[in-house]
Structures are given as structure tokens and as C-alpha cells.
Amino acid sequence: MNTLDRSMHALMQRVTEQAVLPRFRNLSGREIIEKAEDDLVTIADREAELMLAEGLARIDASLAIVGEEAAHADKAVLDHLGGDCWIIDPIDGTHNFAHGQPPFGILLAQASGGFVQSGWIYDCVSGRFCSAHRGGGAYVDGDLVTARTTGETPPVAAISVIFLEPGRRELVHEHIAPHYRTVDAPRCAAEQYPRLGLGENDVSFFERTLAWDHAAGTLWLEEAGGRVARPDGSPYRVDEWERRGLIGAASPALWDQLAALYLKLD
Fold first, then answer.
1. CA–CA dist 159, 74 (Å, integer)
2. Are 66 and 80 in contact (CB under 8 A)?
3. What is the full DSSP assignment across 126-185?
4. 20 to 30 A from 219, CA-CA: which of 113, 117, 155, 250?
5. Pairing of β 156-159 and β 181-183
6. Whole-model pTM?
7. What CA–CA distance (Å, rounded) separates 88 from 15?
């Protein structure tokens, strides 16, 4: 690992040990809040975000900080996504965490001009640490990795329809599902992107594309040799968080196949 990666790993590990795992399977009802339908936040999310923001400011205070919970409290925070910024998802997979089950993790990224430049993914239970820097490859626990497919026929697709309207759910079942062996999505981008690069899943698509959910994972999978892009082929930008639709795949060929099918949903 380089110096920055070691610093990020130490920060994510410390926050996990001090703010996240002590609350795992140890939350009272009043410590779990529903921000919106099927969108939870816990006291651990808020404590972890504060610790992460303080740690990132010590690493480089010149960058604005865009945290999931800070942005929920003040939408003006999102304006920083077009500039130089840190991006924080303090607990990715909060639904799982709040229900006492893995996977869940911490996602951090650094972006400039709307594009992710570096990303880090930490699995709070296993300790797996994924890192990537634009043009520098993708790593797991310090080892360079190359994306690989499952090799299965049909390919394996992890598709979540949670945030799809009923009509689009039916279209997914009609036009996409028959072409794949479908498996449950983990409700955790910190797990889903590694699965796409490490031979567990072949393709996935996401309806919501919030920066804290996707910044780190999109860069990591692309640097590993997979492909992540909007259904029309345009690259993912963190400052286009209101746009819907994002496809990730273990290879460009698998991406092309799903993108062609995805167009049938419109």
C-alpha cells in the first residue's frame, strides 16, 4: 500500500472498531431512524461520519467533505460534488446493519471536477480493504487484482428492484431476468462492487446513483478491468447524483449485453 492507502485503511479500521461494531446487534429502537421509505439511519452512521470527516480533514483539509448524513441535513452540501472533495458513506448497507446482519461497510472516495480520482471500500466484518486510484489499478488488501467473470452460462445477475416503480419491475422480470441466473443483491454497494470484480457476480444495475454509494465502487471496478457506465454509455459522475440508472459488469462484453437489454425498459 502507498502512504495514502495506509492512512485510509487505518482510519476506516479505527472507525469500525470504535463507532460501528460496538453498535452492531446492539441498537435500541430509538437509535434507528427512517429518513424515508426503506431508507434508514442509525446513531452509528452519524457517529462514524463525524469521525471519518475529522480523519479526512487531518489527511487533507483543503478538500470539501460530502457526507451522506450531512447532505441529508443540508442539500447545499451536494454542491461540493462538482469540485475537489472527499465523499463519505459512513455505513453502506445500513438496512443490513440495523437488522443485525452483514454485509455492511465504509465507502470513502476523493473526487475532482465531478470524477472519482481515488476510492476505498472497507468491509467492517471481514476487514477486506479495496482501494483504487485513477490510472493506477485496483487492489484488495494491497494485492493488485483483475476483474474476472463467474464463467457461468447464463451469466449471474444481482438485480435489486427496491427503488423501481411497479411497472419497471415488471419490465425487468420480462426483458432482463430471463437472460441471467438472478441472485439477491446484497443491499450494500461495499459488497456488490467487489462481487462484480472477484468472480461472484457478472452484472448488476442500480436505479439510484448517489455519490456516496457508488463513487468508490465504480472506480475500483473500472480500474480492475470491468466496466461501469450509464445505460447510454456515458461515464459516471458524482455530481450527477439525481440521474437514474447505472450498469456495472465484470467485463465490457457483459456490460454491452445488459445495456442492450436495459434499453427495453424505456
1. 31
2. yes
3. T--EEEEETTS-EEETTEEE--B----SSPEEEE--TTS-HHHHHHHHHHTGGGSEEE--
4. 155
5. parallel
6. 0.94
7. 12
> What is the distance between the alpha carbons of residues 59 and 73, in angstroms, rounded to a whole number?
24
Cell of 64: 470539501
Q: Residue 96 and residue 113: Cα distance in Å, rounded?
A: 32
Q: Which residue has the cell 437509535?
A: 31
CA dist 136 and 237 (Å) reads 19
Q: How confident is the model at residue 37 (pLDDT cuts 50, 70, 90)?
A: low
User: Which three cell numbers, joined as nine digits, stand for 133?
Assistant: 486510484
Residue where the block lists cell 464463467: 151
Longest dimension (CA), the chain: 50
List, for residues 92-125, the tens digit of each pLDDT value: 999 999 999 999 999 999 999 999 999 999 999 9
DSSP state of 19: I
Provide the percentage of residues in the chain whose pLDDT is more than 90.
Answer: 82
The type of residue at 104 is F
What backbone phi and psi angles, to 5 degrees, belong to 168?
-70, -30
Cα atoms in the 13 Å half-sphere on the side-chain side of 190? 30
Q: Is the CB of residue 226 less than 8 Å from the CB of residue 176?
A: no
Q: Tell me what percent of the residues of the chain surpass a pLDDT of 70.
A: 97
236-255 pLDDT, tens digit per residue, is 999 998 999 999 999 999 99
